[in-house]
Amino acid sequence: MFKNLFYHNDKDFILGNLRVFVKPKRLFVFFLVIFLLSIFSLIYPTLTGETISSRYAKEDAILLRVIDGDTIETNLGKVRLLGINTPEKNMPYSNESKNLLRQFENQSIELLRDLEDKDMYGRMLRYLFYETRLINIEILERGFASAYMTFGLRYEEELLRAESYSRKYSLGIWEKSQDACTACISLVELNATAEFFIIKNSCNFVCNLQGWFVKDTGRNLFWLRLIASGEQQTFNSSKSVWNNDGDSFFMFDNKGKLVIFSRYS
Fold it and tell me: What is the pLDDT of residues 117-133, one digit of tens each?
């Protein structure tokens, strides 16, 4: 377009075979306006409330097999359900979410993508719809999962609201421990940079925490032990566990009931 554009003198320039009279200052203004219009065209969707995720249409699919509580196999490929994280295999409530999904095996479903198409493992990142039901939300409402990486998602508010509901009514993974030590075991510090956390026993008696465990949002587990009255215990990790940009701290008793939950961002 600009191959044959060049200044002829201070007052005009040549565009192809056409000589156009214009002052250099006006030419600068002309290109500045074009540049600003280009920038505006990029941010216009944000200004009007349109998001990337709102541009996608639902995809028809068949649910072939349930892999776990938040991962399924479809005729379009493997799908990781967006906005939720369910307990890993053999953890409390790992089967409940899996069984909920199994009722849709060999059924027609709809999938909807959001900001990202696939995760680092090549799995499609999607919302799962069955008729008018958004299953990601249902799993959270029943307490079979915690909200996961929801920031900026199309259904961010709905996902967080569903988790808040199950937490309020102590459903599923949010069912509170009735152990006598629950009231006086506390999280003193969680250091995501140095990869350690400290817990304390404020009870006036020894607490046997064998079978109790701490976990992050992912698969990392720390098994607890006996802790004396007034004692603080530090748990270190030699690998990266706590995400510096945001993560969750869960502590469960030996029956899989919630003792402590803390989320940071």
Answer: 999 999 999 999 999 99
